[in-house]
Amino acid sequence: MSKRLAAEFIGTFWLVLGGCGSAVLAANFGGDGNPLGIGLVGVSLAFGLTVLTGAYALGHISGGHFNPAVSIGLWAGGRFEAAQLLPYLLAQVLGGALAGLVLYLIASGQPGFTLPADTAGAFASNGYGALSPGGYSMTAALISEITLTAMFLIVIMGATDDRAPAGFAPLAIGLALTLIHLISIPVTNTSVNPARSTAVALFAGSGALSQLWLFWLAPIIGGVIGGSLYRRLGQPDR
């Protein structure tokens, strides 16, 4: 069990450092119009690449969840034991939080660094209303996070099904997370992962912390919906 928890800790650390790090350090590098900034597409790819590489590196040890909503969704889908949920969730949250700290230490090493707290997307944080990159409402944020997390679980469970082509699951899952970010960065800055949201909210100010509840509730609801749907959908025909 200790090795699995360590793998979840490291994998979530990698996801937050790679995905949120790309948003904080590289998305707008040099200011508006700088050709070296990776922008929305680059950040979306970075999140997908962290899951893809993390799953290939660590998935055979822990299953490569790196996300409380995924662990809970897999439990709802009959793929994960309830007794392992709390240890997995703790490992994921702690791994993400350490990545948030490391990212903060790196970012603050730039001369003149200031953290624009309580603004949309500050330190790669998630938000709705005034803290949504596009000004989207709480209702829109809930719908987006629930729907996209549900679809993420369907992709995860389908790609890892015994009947699916072997060896390609991390690729499908990573590309799905890329697509999810391409859709929803303007809405919520894309969570679908409570550990990722918590990791940066700790440094992004009271506004991000006050809205963090949504980025636990909605992904968990979406994970349960997606896991439950695939549990029924994936049953062999009789």
Oligomeric state: single chain
Approximate shape? globular
CATH superfamily: Glycerol uptake facilitator protein
Q: What structural category characterises the helix and strand content?
A: mainly alpha
Might you state the CATH topology name?
A: Glycerol uptake facilitator protein
Largest sheet: none
The total tally of domains equals: 1
Low-confidence sequence ranges? none
Overall pLDDT level: 93
Rg from C-alpha positions? 17 Å
Order of helices and strands: HHHHHHHHH
- By CATH reckoning, the class would read Mainly Alpha
- The CATH architecture assignment turns out to be Up-down Bundle
Total strands: the figure is 0
Helix count, DSSP H or I runs of 4 or more residues: 9
Query: What is the terminal-to-terminal distance?
Result: 36 Å
